[in-house]
Design the sequence.
């Protein structure tokens, strides 16, 4: 009896609907200053961030949306020719109590350059910016984009010019890179290789040169062959110039990390109702909990449904197969119903009108009618019309069956996520027939985010 009760409880938990995510309450809360949209690539993070920005601005908040998506879809949808490292005002925000909306796209290298220029004097800054190793590091070092996103977030928050910052996290194969970036760069700056390179600059004078000659002679013997002596000299020059800035990198990274843990921050995990995307979302939910970062909920994008959900996939396929069969003969009306398509061309109007002409006398003397009798023509047209309608109906039934199979698969995937994480609030956005490319489209997405629009037949 106990086992049965436990099983029932597990079933109820697996099928119980997830709590609803109230995005309007989230956007209206003045205590929420940062919203971070995260998730795996291709799930609609950029569109979600932009739609939230438009909705929050039209509800009275002063918003800046920071995107790291190189596709520049955000600029296009907001009517801006291009986005860069400077927040740009978005026009067309409506509403009596509307606030402001600004948008920008992270320029990774420019952000790094700004940090150097802000924390080094003119001569040292110039030496760093012109250093070949710095140019390589700032353009493509693993984790630099994510770290610079954190830096830019910290800069925007410190300016206090906006009361809400919405962040579209970098597109990456792992949604965890955004959280790991500060630690990764900190590990790089604290690594033994960097410390060894920094030692001569710190020791200075003859002692430094002696250490350099002894220490570097061993290192250059191996690394010099692999990387080249000029590369090592560039690294040394870079490290010597950046020495006073390394502590600042770590300090700001730690501060931004704590900012992400603060109550004024809310994470939204974005996913589609597909197995891989929701698996990534579940992993991110668990990671956010482990890092004690505030999760607001899950945004489920591109959810499918049907207005004819009462007709199951099985019944639709059965009906289509019946329509594709040999056909039905309406004995009462005396008309041929749906026939095999191969037979349609064999049946002539004359044959339909007069199945056996030999029964008539003087058939050779009869003058042929200029056209079939009206009732014969009507009957022939009916057969042709009925055939095409039946074919079209069968095709539509198959399309409906495919849609209902997709709806069922998405529902099972959502149920598995909800069973694993019943505490996560969810809002879902019905799949749209086309791409979002303007403010009207972003408003439509915002409406669906706010209402948690469940597509017909998806619940």
Sequence:
């Amino acid at each position: 009896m106990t086992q049965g009760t436990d099983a029932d409880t597990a079933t109820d938990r697996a099928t119980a609907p997830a709590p609803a995510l109230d995005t309007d309450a989230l956007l209206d809360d003045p205590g929420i200053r940062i919203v971070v949209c995260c998730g795996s690539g291709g799930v609609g993070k950029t569109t979600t961030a932009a739609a939230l920005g438009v909705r929050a601005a039209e509800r009275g908040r002063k918003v800046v949306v920071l995107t790291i998506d190189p596709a520049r879809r955000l600029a296009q949808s907001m009517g801006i020719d291009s986005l860069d490292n400077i927040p740009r005002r978005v026009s067309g925000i409506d509403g009596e109590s509307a606030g402001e909306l600004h948008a920008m796209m992270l320029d990774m290298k420019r952000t790094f350059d700004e940090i150097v220029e802000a924390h080094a004097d003119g001569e040292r800054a110039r030496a760093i910016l012109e250093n070949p190793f710095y140019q390589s590091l700032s353009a493509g070092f693993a984790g630099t984009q994510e770290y610079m996103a954190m830096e830019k977030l910290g800069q925007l928050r410190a300016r206090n010019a906006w009361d809400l910052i919405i962040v579209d996290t970098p597109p990456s194969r792992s949604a965890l890179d955004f959280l790991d970036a500060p630690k990764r760069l900190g590990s790089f700056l604290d690594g033994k290789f960097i410390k060894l390179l920094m030692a001569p600059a710190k020791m200075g004078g003859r002692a430094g040169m002696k250490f350099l000659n002894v220490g570097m002679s061993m290192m250059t013997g191996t690394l010099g062959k692999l990387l080249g002596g000029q590369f090592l000299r560039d690294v040394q020059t870079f490290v010597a110039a950046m020495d006073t800035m390394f502590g600042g990198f770590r300090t700001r990274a730690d501060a931004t990390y704590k900012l992400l843990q603060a109550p004024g921050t809310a994470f939204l995990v974005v996913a589609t109702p597909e197995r891989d995307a929701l698996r990534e979302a579940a992993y991110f939910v668990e990671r956010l909990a482990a890092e004690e970062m505030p999760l607001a909920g899950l945004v489920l994008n591109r959810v499918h449904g049907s207005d004819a959900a009462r007709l199951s996939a099985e019944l639709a396929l059965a009906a289509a197969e019946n329509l594709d069969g040999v056909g039905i003969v309406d004995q009462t009306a005396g008309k041929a119903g749906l026939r095999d398509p191969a037979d349609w061309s064999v049946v002539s109007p004359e044959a339909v009108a007069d199945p056996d002409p030999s029964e008539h006398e003087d058939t050779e003397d009869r003058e042929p009618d200029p056209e079939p009798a009206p009732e014969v023509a009507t009957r022939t047209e009916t057969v042709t019309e009925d055939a095409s309608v039946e074919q079209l109906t069968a095709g539509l039934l198959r399309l409906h069956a495919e849609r209902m199979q997709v709806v069922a698969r998405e529902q099972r995937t959502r149920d598995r996520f909800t069973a694993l994480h019943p505490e996560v609030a969810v809002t879902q956005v019905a799949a749209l027939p086309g791409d979002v490319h303007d403010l009207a489209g972003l408003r439509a997405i915002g409406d669906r985010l706010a209402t948690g629009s469940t597509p017909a037949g998806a619940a």
